[in-house]
Design goal:
The complex is a heterodimer of chains A (535) and B (74). With 535 residues, chain A is of the alpha/beta class. Helices cover 34% and strands 20% of the residues of chain A. The radius of gyration of chain A is 30 Å and the shape is globular. About 1% of the residues of chain A have low confidence. Chain B is an all-alpha fold. The chains are: A alpha/beta (535), B mainly alpha (74).
């Protein structure tokens, strides 16, 4: 990223404080707002406005800002251009004001912030902040230095520059990192004090005692994260029954069972559990944050799963509530907006994974996640993915034929072959291209399934049946009547063994080699169950 | 102690170790008015002091800065 920093005040480029910002940055000329129009120079512009700088002969007026607002609105429309606007209304005057008797600068700031919010609502790539709030952490007056107004054209003090730079650097670390979505928590000495297995539900610390109150405050902050759409999960070495008893029945507990999307309460390693949670939720490990009081567990997770952000909790639990509330991982800055009903959705999913046997629920659930496919015939642009799939897919693969890029290129050219890549999307994720078929013409009536494979990630969604639907459609359209299939047992692909039978194919005695089983079917008899899931 | 720290701050800014208390500011290659201010700010921050505006622009060599800081710390 290449950012431009533009301001109405002098910002002391070269000041050591700016080293904190770890992205390529350029200080633009003072007040050169035209640069906001530039679409090539910077992908991101940080604009810092001090309202008192806009003090011309007629005084400071809101109208003075109209040209800048116009430029910002224009800029925000370009999705690939980012903007962060910071405004300060600081003016050295009597800061003690009562009865809403705001300074002119403050009134202008409020109006500007309102305007910025309107822009933000329409454009996610636009961000704004009231810098005075940032400065208030060091005391507003400390952020400014009257001497500097006469030395340069800036009121900022060294501390003010420090704070600005800190804010911008945090902004960009958050901005460029994907937002974490899942918080995995330990139980003993994390959600409550003491060891549940030894002390029992009535003796653990949670509630009235001094420490107990801290643990409750910690839970409150976690609940807050949950309400913002962060998913909560537990990984604890305990008896599941005991922990669930606490979550359901403890008189003080704030975090209840239904706040969590996933529990791994067992004696397995935490890293194994986190991997399982990641698979069940279908979320990458880099969207996980792990909190555990035990340094051994933390170090193991750090070592085995470096993608997971393992938090180093403060040694004194009194600081935990504020620490978890201010974790950068969950910050709302990134361009991905999250929805608040995430937990519900994932509960449905977890339920689906946990009790797959109740077929009726399963179909209902699958219908609700809005499965959608996207097909593309093999072409120059997707052969790389197709080849990769043939080389990597071991499990759900009928014949495990491996094709390097050149092979696929030949297949495209050969009129006897027809290949299709099938992508899958549901409300959780776009899984990308996860299915591949290659059909071979045997004669004018008969097709042969040369390749049928799909990614294991999407098993259990009748995706394979949807793929057969495409086969059937293609065959009927091209006047084929018969289809042959073969299962070649590689010991790794047992999961695909029944695939052909499931879709109405019958075994035939022809054999190409020892571990092969041939099947045949009439095109019109290809059985497509529950295919309405995809309508 | 004060002297050593001030020299360190200046060295860090100008990325050159060849200076001492007698060095004249105008003879330092990378020195300009902006660098001057940034260094003064850094020194103020480290020693928790404030220079008068008249002082800030009057420093001619490093020794004057050191003496001013020492006076303020007394």
């Amino acid at each position: 990223m290449n950012i431009g920093i533009l301001s109405s005040s002098f910002l002391y480029p070269g000041n050591q404080a700016w080293k904190k910002i770890n992205v390529k940055k350029t200080f633009c000329e003072l007040g050169d707002y035209k640069i906001l129009q530039e679409r090539k120079k910077f992908d991101f512009i940080v604009l810092i406005l001090f309202i008192s700088d806009f003090n011309n002969k007629e005084g400071t007026k809101f109208d003075n800002f109209n040209p800048i607002i116009k430029l910002l609105e224009e800029r925000a429309k370009h999705k690939n251009l980012g903007t962060l606007v910071m405004v300060s209304s600081y003016k050295k005057d009597n800061l003690i004001k009562v009865n809403n008797n705001l300074s002119k600068e403050k009134k202008i700031k409020q109006k500007l912030l309102k305007k910025f919010l309107d822009i933000k609502k329409k454009n996610l790539n636009f961000n704004f902040s009231d810098i005075d709030e940032v400065f208030s952490t060091i005391g507003l007056q400390n952020a400014f230095d009257s001497r500097n107004k006469y030395l340069t054209s800036s009121n900022l003090s060294q501390s003010g520059i420090d704070e600005l730079s800190y804010f911008i650097s945090v902004f960009f670390t958050r901005y460029s990192k994907p937002k974490s979505k899942v918080l995995v928590l330990d139980c003993d000495n994390t959600l409550w004090g003491g060891v549940l297995g030894e002390e029992g539900i009535n003796k653990i610390e949670m509630g009235e005692t001094q420490n107990g109150k801290i643990y409750l405050d910690f839970q409150k902050e976690i609940l807050n994260l949950h309400d913002q759409g962060i998913l909560l999960a537990i990984s604890s070495k305990n008896n599941e029954k005991d922990v669930l008893d606490v979550l359901n029945n403890h008189h003080s507990i704030i975090l209840k069972k239904n706040h969590f999307v996933n529990f791994k309460i067992n004696w397995e390693s935490k890293s194994k559990n986190i991997i399982k949670i990641s698979k069940e939720l279908d979320l990458g490990l880099d969207s996980f944050v792990f909190w555990d009081d035990n340094p051994l567990e933390r170090n193991l997770v750090r070592k085995i799963l470096p993608d997971v952000s393992t938090v180093e909790p403060n040694e004194d639990i009194v600081y935990w509530p504020e620490q978890i509330a201010s974790l950068e991982n969950f910050s709302n800055l990134s361009n991905v907006s999250i929805k608040k009903d995430q937990t519900k959705k994932y509960h449905a999913r977890a339920k689906f994974i946990n009790d797959k046997d109740s077929a009726k629920d399963e179909l209902k659930y699958l219908k609700s996640i809005k499965l959608r496919t996207k097909i593309s015939t093999l072409n120059k642009n997707n052969i790389a993915r197709a080849s990769e799939m043939t080389l990597k897919t071991n499990q759900y693969n009928l014949r495990t034929k491996r094709y390097v890029l050149a092979d696929i290129e030949n297949i495209i050219k050969d009129k006897n072959y027809f290949g299709l890549l099938i992508g899958l999307k549901d409300i959780y994720a776009d899984h990308g291209n996860v299915g591949l078929i290659i059909l071979k013409r045997i004669n004018k009536n008969t097709l042969f399934i040369d390749t049928f494979l799909m990614s294991c990630r999407v098993i259990g969604r009748y995706f394979e049946t949807q793929i057969f639907r495409y086969i059937k459609e293609y065959a009927l359209k091209n006047n084929y009547t018969d289809i042959l299939g073969e299962f070649i047992d590689t010991k790794k692909n047992i999961v695909a063994k029944k695939l052909l039978e499931k879709h109405g194919f019958k075994k035939i005695s022809r054999k190409t080699k020892e571990n092969s089983q041939m099947y045949s079917n009439k095109i019109k008899n290809i059985k497509l169950e529950n295919i309405n899931l995809y309508d | 102690m004060t002297e050593k720290k001030i020299l360190e701050i200046i060295q860090k800014h100008i990325q050159n170790r060849k200076i001492n208390r007698k060095t004249k500011l105008k003879n330092i290659e990378k020195w300009d008015s902006l660098m001057h201010l940034n260094i003064i700010f850094a020194i103020e921050k480290v020693f928790k002091i404030k220079f008068k505006i008249s002082e800030m622009s009057s420093f001619k060599n490093i020794e004057e800065i050191i003496n001013s800081v020492k006076n303020k710390k007394k």
